[in-house]
Structures are given as structure tokens and as C-alpha cells.
Design goal:
This protein has helices spanning 15-19, 22-25, 27-46, 52-64, 67-86, 88-103, 108-124, 128-145, 150-163, 174-184, 190-218. It is mainly α.
Length: 225
């Protein structure tokens, strides 16, 4: 038995070995195969797939719904590359650190500010990858200097990013969500979806932020191991 395997032999004892294993590398293929077989079985049993052309049309419809996502990713990649070339991250980090020190913003107020900033920015920048790529070079060093640990910064960002996804017109999967809503309500538009989801977005923002502050500053529990 290889030395990096545990006694059971089912998983490497070192998590880094598992991350680089062939099992993890092959997961996308396995997941694609499972979902493909499941969709094919559903189509045959439900009667939606009667000929080979029906399968091709279903694949065309699924790929056409990804057009909005690919378009957003194209312009987002240009924005990230331009921001990296500008070297604005270091300049903004220093200026923001000075501003936080001047106004004495720290602790829970700083966490709430980060959550709200991330939530508002997410409305205009729907992709979490793009948003974190823009925010991280500026906010991570700034908030580390202000005394916030990196795990708290990440959780606060994820809370703000997640609660406004459903009301962001630039959310990559909004087209898929709207298409699903129109299956149940044929006249549903973007405004209908936003108006329905806005109360949930606000409720989740208040609930998750309160839970984070209670977890960190009241219970004093760690956010991770």
C-alpha cells in the first residue's frame, strides 16, 4: 500500500494528495456522464425523446440559454485584465486603509460595511469570480491591516454576493431562471422576477449578517478549522 494512503485505503491521509488525485480530476467527466444518462432516461420515459432529432433539439436549447453567461464572461475577463494592468489595487488598498484608520471603523461595523458593499456591487457585477477578482487585491490587504482575519473577509463577501444574485440583472444564470419562471407564468419578465425576489433578498441579507456577527462577536466561535 502506498505510504500516503490511510489504513482504510479509501482516501489519502494527506488532503493535498486527494486534491491532486485522478479521482478529483475525473469528477467533471463522471458528473457529466451521470447527468447525461439521467436526462436521456427522463426524456425516453416521459416520451419527450422519440427520435434522434429530439435529443439534438434539447441540446441546442440548453446551449442557447448559456449565451448570456458566455457574453458576460467575455466582458468580465477584459475588465479583470485591464484592472490588473492598471496597478490600482495597491493604491486603493493603501488609501482605504488610511480612510478606515481615520474614521476608526473596525469590528462589527467594518464587517457590515463589507457585506453591504459586496451586496451592492454584486447587482452591477453578477459573477462572483469576477467580483472577487476585483475586490480581493484591494480589500484583503486593507481589511487585514484593519484587524479582520481572512476567513471573516471571505464569509462577509460571500454573504453580500449571494443575497443579491437573484435581483441582479447581470447575474449569469438569470436567463435560465427567467426561462424556468416562464414555464409556470408565461408573462413573467425581469421586473416580475426582481419584485418577487426582493423581499427574500433583504430578509436573507439581514439574517445571514446577523448570524455572522452573532457567531463571531457574541459566541466567539471559529469560522473554520
Amino acid at each position: 500500500m502506498p505510504p500516503y494512503l490511510n489504513l482504510v485505503g479509501l482516501a489519502p491521509a494527506d488532503p493535498a494528495q486527494l486534491a491532486r488525485s485522478e479521482v478529483i480530476k475525473g469528477l467533471p467527466i463522471l458528473v457529466s456522464f451521470v447527468f447525461g444518462i439521467s436526462g436521456l432516461a427522463f426524456g425516453l420515459v416521459s416520451g419527450k425523446f422519440r427520435r434522434e432529432q429530439d435529443i439534438i433539439k434539447a441540446c441546442e436549447q440548453s446551449l442557447s440559454q448559456l449565451g448570456l453567461f458566455l457574453l458576460i464572461m467575455f466582458f468580465a475577463s477584459q475588465l479583470i485584465f485591464t484592472f490588473q494592468l492598471s496597478n490600482l489595487a495597491g493604491l486603493l488598498a493603501v488609501n482605504l486603509s488610511d480612510m478606515l484608520a481615520y474614521f476608526s471603523i473596525e469590528g462589527p461595523l467594518l464587517v457590515v460595511t463589507l457585506v453591504l458593499f459586496s451586496a451592492v456591487l454584486n447587482i452591477f457585477m453578477g459573477s462572483p469570480v469576477v467580483q472577487w477578482s476585483v475586490m480581493a487585491p484591494v480589500f484583503v490587504p486593507t481589511l487585514l491591516l484593519a484587524g479582520l482575519p481572512i476567513e471573516l473577509i471571505q464569509v462577509a463577501f460571500r454573504i453580500g454576493d449571494s443575497v443579491t444574485n437573484i435581483i441582479s440583472p447581470l447575474f449569469g444564470y438569470l436567463g435560465l431562471i427567467l426561462a424556468t419562471a416562464q414555464q409556470y407564468h408565461g408573462s413573467a419578465k425581469l421586473g416580475t422576477l426582481v419584485s418577487m425576489m426582493l423581499p427574500f433578498s433583504i430578509a436573507f441579507l439581514i439574517m445571514w449578517t446577523s448570524l455572522l456577527l452573532f457567531w463571531v462577536y457574541i459566541l466567539d466561535w471559529p469560522l473554520g478549522i
